[in-house]
Amino acid sequence: MDGVLLVDMMIPELIHKIFQNFSTPLHLHDLNSFPWYLGHVCALWRAVFMTMHLQFWNKLDIKLDFIDNLCDYPFKKISRYELMRYVLKFFLNRTNRPFSFQLRPQYALGEEDYVSPMLEMLVAESTRWEDVSISWDQRSHVPILYRARNRLPLLRSLQLFKPSLTFKFNDELPLGHDLLEGASCLRNVRIADLCEWRVDWTQLRVLKIGQFHQGERLLSVLSQAKQLEKLAIYQALYDTGFNLDLSTKLLSFESLKVLTVMDVGLLSIFYAPCLEELYIDGWNDEDSTVHNVITSLQCSLARPAASNALA
Fold first, then answer.
1. Phi and psi for 128 in degrees, rounded to 5?
2. pLDDT tens digits for 226-279?
3. 3-state DSSP call for residue 234?
4. DSSP state of 304
5. For the purposes of burial, counting CB atoms within 10 Å of the CB of 165, is it exposed (0-12), middle (13-18) or buried (19 or more)?
6. What residues does 277 pair with on adjacent strands?
7. Separation of alpha carbons 278 and 272, rounded Å
8. Domain locations in the chain?
9. pTM above 0.90, yes or no
10. SS3 for 201?
11. What are the C-alpha distances in Å from 64 to residues 67, 71, 137?
C-alpha cells in the first residue's frame, strides 16, 4: 500500500527524470525491447511516458529480414507483420513532431512485398523526416519514395541505397535524381551511386559515395562541397578508367577532418589542412580493424610527396 502511495505522490518532473534513463528508439522488429511497461504502472506514469517525444517517440528502426526466417510459418509471418504495421501507425499518430527512422527490407525472393505499405505510411509523413536511412530491394518501391519530392523541409541526413545482394552496377535505378531538390536542411548524404543527383552540395557537412561512373562528375561535385567535415569515397579511380593528370584542379577542404578513400591518387589533389583522420582502403569508417588509419594528422595533402608517404 505504501508503495502505491509513493508512486501516486511522485511529481511528473521526477518521473520524467527517471524515464530518461530508459530512452530508446522503437524497434518494430523487436517490440519487446521497448519499455512499454513504463506506461502500465498508473495513469500519471502513462501520461508522462506518452509525452516524452525526444526519448521514446522520435526514432524508428524497421528491419524486415526476420521474415526470411518465417517462410515455413506463413500465419506467424503475417500476424507479426500486421502487428508491426499497427505499431507503426500508432507511432506516427502519437505526435505531429519530427522523427527519424531507418528501413531495411527482407532479402528473400518471393511474391510478398512487405516494404511498400510501410514505406507508403512513412512517405505520407515525409514533411516530418529528420534523419533517414532507406534501403529498398524492389523497383516498385521507387515511385513510392519519389512522392517525398518537395516534401522534405526538415530532412537533415539521408542514407539511400539498395542491398548489395540486389545492386547492379550497370543498372541505372529509375529513382528521380531531383528527389532531394529543395531539402534546404540537408547536411549529411550517403548514396550508393553518385549518378546525376541534384543536391545543394555547397551546404553538405558529410558526404559518402558508394560508387561513381564518371571521374569528371565526382570532381565537379567535390569542387562544390567546400564545407565538408567528413568525406568517404568507396570506389577506386581505376574502376572507372579515370586518371588524374597534372592539369586537375586542386580541391580545397578547409573544414575537412575525416577522409576515407579507396585510392591514394585522390590525395594528390586534396588540400585539407585540418584533417585529423585518414582511412585508406577501408569500407566501414567505424571499424576499428581498418588498416592504414592515421589519427591526429596535421598536414596538407596538397603535395604528391605527402600522398606517397601515406600510401
1. -110, 0
2. 999 999 999 888 777 777 776 678 899 999 999 999 888 888 888 999 999 988
3. coil
4. H
5. exposed
6. 258, 295
7. 11
8. 10-57, 59-165+176-186
9. no
10. helix
11. 6, 13, 11
